[in-house]
Structures are given as structure tokens and as C-alpha cells.
Amino acid sequence: MPKNSKVVKRDLDDEVIESVKDLLSNEDSSDDAFKKSELMVGDQEEKDADVEEGSDVEDERPAWNSKLQYILAQVGFSVGLGNVWRFPYLCQKNGGGAYLVPYLILLLVIGIPLFFLELSVGQRIRRGSIGVWNYISPKLGGIGFASCIVCFFVALYYNVIIGWSLFYFSQSFQHPLPWDQCPLVKNASHTFVEPECEKSSATTYYWYREALNISSSLSESGGLNWKMTICLLAAWVMVCLAMIKGIQSSGKIMYFSSLFPYVVLLCFLVRGLLLNGSLDGIRHMLTPKLEIMLEPKVWREAATQVFFALGLGFGGVIAFSSYNKRDNNCHFDAVLVSFINFFTSVLATLVVFAVLGFKANIINEKCVIQNSEKILKLLKTGNLSQDMIPHHINFSSITAEDYNLVYDIIQKVKEEEFESLGLKSCQIEDELGKAVQGTGLAFIAFTEAMTHFPASPFWSVMFFLMLVNLGLGSMFGTIEGIITPIVDTFKIRKEILTVICCLVAFFIGLIFVQRSGNYFVTMFDDYSATLPLLIVVILENIAVTRIYGIEKFMEDLKDMLGFSPSQYYYYMWKYISPLVLLCLLVASIVQMGLSPPGYNAWIEDTATEEFHSYPTWGMMVCISLMVLAILPVPIVLIVRRCNLIDDSSGSLASVSYKRGRIIKEPVNLEGDNTSLIHGKSPSEVPSPNFGKNIYRKQTGSPTLDTAPNGRYGIGYLMADMPDMPESDL
Questions:
Q1: Which of 605, 620, 642 is the last residue of a domain?
Q2: Which helix (H) or strand (E) holds 603?
Q3: SS3 per residue for 523-589
Q4: Same domain, 246 and 214
Q5: Residue 470, annotated ligand binder?
Q6: Domain's final residue, options 642, 668, 689
Q7: H helices within 607-650, ranges in order?
């Protein structure tokens, strides 16, 4: 040690005292919170210990009241409407029970590893998506902004679906249900059935004409549908009230919104199993078609479903996990939530096919009765001989098996003129084979089946209340994926931001409650999220494994969890998952290119759906949705790469006063080899230090900028010390 080391130390200590005086001399006398803060100047080791011990209250960040509340929030976010009306359709379309094999494989390959990755970074850094990816790689900070934009796009139309469910819920308190029978039209001479309903069905007519009052094309606006406008307003009011206090308010609602759907699904399963034909539906669903499982399309659709079922890339997963304690076992959470999601999809599929089996049985019985009457007429007219009919057949109480026996005999005997007889084959499998998904399943097929239930209004109320809760659970996570990153980054009051966000979303969402609104919902669903989210998750994977470093990340996880995660995740994150995601991205682009961009329009005259291509302006909207969603990534990259914004201006760097210590929020961490664990998160990073924590006295009086939350945004420019080595900062 140099001879004059004690003198140097004394000088430095004097400088510390002077620096503290300078800092305190600039305090705002009206800032009570600042007056109570103290500047802790001591050994770095002591400060590190202080941060770790106080991490649970640091930054006064809200926390979950219990682990159960957090798990229910994640389950509520991941388990949504897609589990009820998308997974059963894919299962039916892609090989029945055989579809579960590729789904489970892809859940293990991309689902759980990527879900675990998002939980880990959110829990460790304790910031929303913007702060997390800004911290890991500032040049890829646009990932967080892209996630927010995609969340906003999805929230716009997702809440419209909740509004539709609210409308049906409100109409279910009457007997008979309003969609039970076709309406009658009266004129001066006679009464007749509404032609549009007669050509389709009562539930189809009610959906398109009574609920949506749909126009015949995207270009034909038709004005606002006032009933759906009120329902959309009610949906946004519910979301706003639930989210206005963040997890402190939404967390309590999760106990009902996340658990109630399981109660309803179990009730429907028990009731469905007691109905005629339900076992036929379940058998049809579980029967594996192994030859279909080998088709690439099946794997692509399974990967897409896994991806969206867990809410990857939205930012909601990161936002929810950011309110956890840092020693929470997020690996257990990732596996648990992923398998709860999977088993919920299987449960929903059993319920759907039990009910659809019952519906198919009713339709099949009607088919048998109608065609039996045709055979009797043909026997009376002499077109068919009585000798063809087996003696045990009784047409007054004929079964489906007996009818199919007669049908086969007539088909063989009257082979040449069979088509002219107009007889139909009444097979329950044919009805079950009609693939229905989305709104067609929820608001038409399932709704029609419930009209045949005893006490149908009760089951209708339960079903649509379940849809509302499933939708709200996903909406909470989606809105949290917008609110949390913005509040963390720009220090805006959460209550004000939530109200503004919901108001803006409601007014933009009015385009979805026009008479042509259903076509816009289809457009946003097809183009606003799929490709942008795939790109976002690929970049997330690259940021952690390539830029931050997979080895360093594994060490971080070991320090955070208290044990080393399986090497399985190492290889998944580094090699397999990125490769699968790239293949999925390419396949999605190819599929989008091969499929003509368009929508199914409802034609009133024919009472059928007809495919229409998007007009030129519609194509521009589709392209704009994809470009706008991913645009923040290259913008932030260029801005950071070319240093177009001076980070020292205070817009991106700030010093905030947190419980007795100054905390520096980093702005340029490029080349920082400090890990997430040993280096501090944005809320923990200590003020610049060099040996001891010494704050250099500024030559001039620093200018104070007041941040939106009343704290000092740029602090004392402690990073602006040209005479100090960069490594010490």
C-alpha cells in the first residue's frame, strides 16, 4: 500500500461528506418522501446485503398475497377461450386422440422451456417486458414495446368476444331461449317462418341476424350495433375496475374468474355423460387416426396452439411473474401451469364432444324419421317393393341401426335409380365429422345443443358466464402486459394509465361493433398477433441464449432457485426451441402466402357463408397490423446502434430514491458481463462506485427534472463523470 494511502482515504472521506451535503442542499422542501430518505455510504458488500435482504419490499413493488393467487393468475391468463373452442376443433380435425401425441411433444419442446424462460426473467429482473428486455440487451429493447403493441391489438378484439358472451348471458334468463325456434313473420294474409332462419337454423339465424345484425361484406359498415356497443362498454368497464389497482384488485378476482370455469366444465361433463349419444361423441374424439398424425400440417397447427395457449410473447407472463419474490420456484410454476393448461384443454374437449355427440344423436334421429317417411311414401306409390324391407322393421319406431340396414338394401337393389329416390344416409359419425370452431362452436353448435337440455336457460347462463370468466382471465394478463411495462418504464400512475388505456381501447373497438364488425375481428385475429408474436419469442430466445449468454443464464437460475435446472433446458433453449420456432415461422409465412387473404361473409338471401377476398384497403390494414406490431424492434435497434438519443439526457436513465439508498437505473449495459444475479436488476443497481461508494462533487449546480411521479428523474447525473474509468461506473 502506498505511504500516503491514509491521507488519500481521509481526503476521499471528506469528499463523501461534501457530496452528501451537496446532494441534500438540492432537495425539494416539499418532497416529504425525499426528506425521509437517507444516503447510505458504506462498503459495497454491506449495500449488496441490504439489497438482498430488502428485495421483497424494494421499490415498493406490489406482491402477490399468496402463491395460490399467483398460480391462479397465470392459469387464468393461459387458459382462455381457445382451450374451449380451438383445441377441440384441432383435435377433431387432426386425428382425434392421435393429435395429443404431437401436442404433448411440442409442449415439452417449446411450450414449457419458453414459458419457464419468461417466468425466470420476469421474476429475476422484476420489471415488465420493456424493462426486462431493455436490461438484458438494450439494442433488443424493442421486443418489450412490440409485446405491448401486440397485447393492445389482441385486447381490442378479445374484449369484443367477451361482449358477445355478455349479450348471450343477458338473453339466457328466459324460457324458452330466444334462439330455440325460428321467429314467425306476420303479414296481412298469413303467418310464415322467417325465410333466412328457415334456410339455416334457429341458432345460426339468431347469431348472425339478432346478435350481430351482420352486413354482407367488410366494406358495408351498416352503422353501430347498439346492443353490442353497450355490451362492449360493459366489458371494458369490468376490465378497468378489475385492473385499476393492478394485482391488488385483479388478484382477488382471480379466485372466482379462474376457478369458476372448472366448476362449469365439470358440471357440463357430468350432465353431458348422462345424455344420449354423448359416448358416441367422446368415442369419435378419442379414436386415433394415425395416418393423419404424420402430416406436417398437424404438427404446425399443434405448435401454434401450444404457442398461443401459454400466452408466450404477450408480456403478461413476464408481468405477473415480476411481482414474485426472487426465490420463488418458477420452474415448478412453469411445469404446473403448462400441464394445467393441457388438462384443461382435454377436459374442455371431452365436454364439447359429449355435448356435440348428444346434438348429433338428436339430428340423426330427425334424419331417420324424415327418411323413414320418404320410404313409406315410396312403398305406397310402388316405387319400392315391400319385399325389400326385412319383416322385423317397424317404421313407426325405427332405430338408426334398422334404418341404415334398410338404406343399404335399397341402395344395392336400386343401384341405378337410387339417387333419384332422395334418401340420405343417417350416420352419427357424419354429423360429428363436421368440424366447427371459434364462434361457430360457442354461439351456434353448442348453443343449439343446450336448447335440448332440460332446464336449458340454467345451462345457458352457466355456459356464457364461463365464457365471460375465461375471457376476463386472459384479458387481465393481456392488459397487465401493457400496463406493467409502461408504469415501470415511464413512472405513470397505474390508475390513470389503466383508465386511459381502457377508454382508448373502447373507442377504437367501436369498429368491431359495427354491423361489419365480425369481419374486422377475423382480420385482427388472423394478422395482428401470429407472425409478430413468433418473431418476438424468437428474439427473446436469441437475447437470452446468444447475447446475454446461456451459461451465465443457467448460473443465474441456479443462484435464484437454489438448484441447477436440468441440462435439458440448456439444449432446448440453445438449439432445439429456436430451430422449431424458426420452422414454425417459415411454415406460418408459407401458409399465409398460400391461403388467399379473405373472410367468410354471411349472405342474407341464401342464408349461407361465402368467401370474400379482402379489398385493397383491407389488405393494407392487414399488412399495417403486422408491420406496426414488429416495428419497434428495428427502430430501437437503430436508435441504440447509432446513438440517436443521448441516454444521459434523463429520458432513459434516472436515479430514484428508494428506501434509504440511491438506485441508479442502467441505460447502456452493452458489454456488461455482470449476470442477472450478481449484477443488480434495474431496481437494484447501486449508484456508481469505485472501491468505496463515493459520490463526486459536481462543479456546477445540477439541474433537477421532476419525473411524472414527483421524483427526480435525472437525479444528480452521477454517471456523467468524465474523469472516472468506464469500468468503475
A1: 642
A2: strand 598-603
A3: HHHHHCCHHHHHHHHHHHHHHHHHHHHHHHHHHHHHHHHCCCCCHHHHHHHHHHHHHHHHHHHHHHH
A4: yes
A5: yes
A6: 642
A7: 616-630, 632-641
- DSSP 8-class letter at 139: G
Which one, of 568, 260, 526, 276, lies nearest residue 399 by Cα?
A: 276
Annotated ligand binding at 97? The verdict is no
DSSP state of 180: S
For the chain, how many helices (H) and strands (E)?
A: 33, 6
User: Cβ of 188: how many Cβ atoms within 10 Å?
Assistant: 4
Which sign, positive or negative, has the C-alpha torsion 463, 467, 473, 474?
positive
Which CATH number belongs to the domain containing residue 506 in this structure? 1.10.4160
Nearest to 439 by CA among 198, 164, 153: 164
Helix orientation angle between 330-381 and 67-78, rounded to the nearest 10 degrees: 40
Strand, coil or helix: 610: strand
Burial of 20 (0-12, 13-18, 19+ CB in 10 A): middle
DSSP type of residue 26: T
- Residue 588 resides in a domain: yes
Give tens-digit pLDDT for 138-196: 889 999 999 999 999 999 999 999 999 999 999 999 988 999 888 888 877 788 888 88
Same-domain status, 405 and 314: no
Integer CA distances (angstroms), 191 to 187, 202, 210, 607, in order: 6, 17, 20, 20
Is residue 443 within 8 A of residue 168, CB to CB? The reply is yes
- Residue 234 is part of which domain span? 78-350+443-642
Peptide bond into 176 cis (omega under 30): yes
Instruction: Kindly report, residue by residue over 409-441, the tens digit of the pLDDT.
Output: 887 877 777 777 777 787 877 777 776 666 777
Half-sphere exposure of residue 489, counting CA atoms within 13 Å on the CB side? 24
E strand or H helix that includes residue 185: strand 184-186
Q: What is the mean pLDDT of residues 80-87?
A: 88
Rounded-to-integer distance, Cα 675 and Cα 49, Å: 17
- Are the CB atoms for 574 and 541 separated by under 8 Å? no
Grid coordinates given for 337: 401451469
Cα three-residue angle 37-38-43, rounded to 5 degrees? 140
Q: How far apart are the first and last CA of the chain?
A: 24
Q: Is 187 annotated as a binding residue?
A: no
What gap in Å lies between CA 696 and CA 16, rounded to an integer? 7
72 domain-assigned: no
Residue 378 in domain: yes
Amino acid at 115: F
Pair 330, 392 in one domain: no
Q: What percent of the chain has pLDDT over 70?
A: 80
Q: What is the pLDDT of residues 303-318, one digit of tens each?
A: 889 988 999 999 899 9
How many domains does the structure of the chain reveal? Answer: 2
Q: Is the pLDDT of residue 700 over 60?
A: no
Instruction: Determine whether the annotation assigns residue 521 to a binding site.
Output: no
User: Residue 67: inside a domain, yes or no?
Assistant: no
Side chain identity, residue 311 = G
Digit-coded pLDDT (tens) for 438-495: 677 788 888 888 888 888 899 999 999 999 999 999 999 999 999 999 998 888 888 9
**Residue 510 annotated as binding site:** no
The radius of gyration of the chain's CA atoms, rounded to the nearest angstrom, is 31
48 pLDDT more than 80: no
Q: What is the grid cell recorded at 103?
A: 401436442
What DSSP assignment string belongs to 207-270? Answer: IIIIIS---SSSS----B-HHHHHHHHHHHHHHHHHHTTTHHHHHHHHHHHHHHHHHHHHHHHH
**657 with 37: CB under 8 angstroms?**
yes
Whether 404 and 548 map to the same domain: the answer is no
Give the confidence band of 296 by pLDDT, cuts at 50, 70, 90.
confident
79 marked as part of a ligand binding site: yes
> 379 or 269, which is more confident?
269
